[in-house]
Amino acid sequence: MLMRTDPFRELDRLTQQVFGTPGTWSKPAAMPMDAYRAGDEFVVCFDLPGVSPDAIELDIERNVLTVKAERRPLPGGDDVQMQVSERPLGVFSRQLFLGESLDTDHISADYEAGVLTLRIPVAEKAKPRRIEIGGAQSDRKEIQA
């Protein structure tokens, strides 16, 4: 997989927010998120109000997590006339580069009330542990690793 950075990506996201240009699959719009650590897991929350759960894609490849979602127009017919439409439609995307200290094999995802929540556990090898020091039987001690 070829990985590249786009120095203008943040400027493109700001422009899309200001001018309201819809995201496409080739140029997705911004997706707001919060991330924090809670105990032995990292929690990432993405704001996706109005997005159907079947329109969300989660992929991980080589510790790069990609979230894509599409907000589609509401179903309508000949008798439906839109009065106000302020929520942006289109494709939204975000990529996260996950460190080696995270267990990417056990990521869980929940979608409730327009918020996609990912829980990524810290890998066992990255958790602090005690190491026993050998030596004379009476002088056995433990140190914090």
From TrEMBL:
It comes from Amycolatopsis melonis. Belongs to the small heat shock protein (HSP20) family. PROSITE patterns: SHSP (PS01031). It comes from the Bacteria. This is Hsp20/alpha crystallin family protein. Pfam families: HSP20. Residues 24-136 form the SHSP domain.
